[in-house]
Amino acid sequence: MTDRDTVSDKAARPVVLLVNLGTPEAPTAPAVRRFLREFLGDQRVVEMHPTLWKIILETFVLPLRPRMVAPQYAKIWTEHGSPLAHWTHMQGQILRERLKDCADVRVAMRYGEPSIGTVLDELHCAGHRRILVLPAYPQYSASTVGTVMDEVARHLLRTRDQLEIRTIRSFEVAKEYIEALAHALETHWQTVGHPQFDKRDRVLLSFHSIPVAMREAGDPYQQHCEATVKHVARRLNLPDDALMVTYQSVFGRAEWIGPATIDTVGHLGRSGTRRVDIICPGFMADCLETLEEINQLNRETFIEAGGESFHYIPWGNDSKGAMSTLEAQARRHLGGWI
């Protein structure tokens, strides 16, 4: 086989690029500062006049917030490093094995390393030309999926011999995804008992929030979250109002969509709710927002408010349901290339 034949084979064989948010390289203030500078410097994430926001970011946010956030990362750091990085790379390995008959798989991070641009450059230099971009975000938002697509587009803008790109916008009601969430809940309930779905027991589905201004500008994210919850309720044969929808991870002074998860668990604890089960459908890999914010801070808030039992229910990472979800999306969008 000639070198030309090898290049031709690589050009024909597609690559699935699994993309997650990213993470600091270490649980230290300098590493968190580098990460936040890139993350919060994205105009899709903070929709403010760029010059004004840069002044605020460099003068007020970056000198203070990294020192506050670094200890939170330290609480969840493992021998493998960042949980988000560990689980995303693990998903990439499993997906690579599942798709070995039809595609290669690589992993990239929107912020931090390995960056989208770096991985696309490496694939291009290796001779690959067909790339399916799979963001690990079930619900679409301009501040998540949108910014991944922006970065891919920037690569195309600076490339003469452009890649053939396919993208996956969202999969908020995909059959495999809804089944993965429902199965995680059912498995948990088999262990701790089925909730009563009344004042004593509540089940929360907590999603990352976005500013109200983004929603009012036309971002469909909240609609996608609510659609996910409705489909999970139907799969579990529950009334739509049996599952509570809440939103987490707000920061800054802007108004964010709610109700806020931490406010909700506090209210439930004070109102006599004895048990809260909570699952985070928007996070396919455990990270700061699930392990520290939900499983530690929200747990403490609920118990201190008078609640008795708080259960965080993991569903993603390397679970069969999460991997079947990713595989199904990839195979569905690889059609015609394989």
Description:
By secondary structure, the protein is an alpha/beta fold. It contains twelve helices and eight strands. The chain has helices spanning 3-12, 29-40, 50-76, 83-98, 116-125, 145-157, 175-192, 212-216, 221-235, 261-270, 288-304, 320-333, and strands at residues 15-22, 104-111, 130-135, 164-167, 201-208, 243-248, 275-279, 309-312. The strands form two sheets. A four-stranded parallel β-sheet has the order 2-1-3-4, sandwiched between helices. It has a four-stranded parallel β-sheet with strand order 6-5-7-8, with helices on both faces. Helix 7 packs antiparallel against helix 12. The model has no long low-confidence stretch (mean pLDDT 95).
Instruction: Give the spatial strand order of the biggest sheet.
Output: 2-1-3-4
CA distance, first residue to last residue: 22 Å
Instruction: Flag low-confidence runs.
Output: none
Number of E-type strands:
8
Average pLDDT taken over every residue? 95
Count of DSSP-assigned helices: 12
Helix content: 40-55%
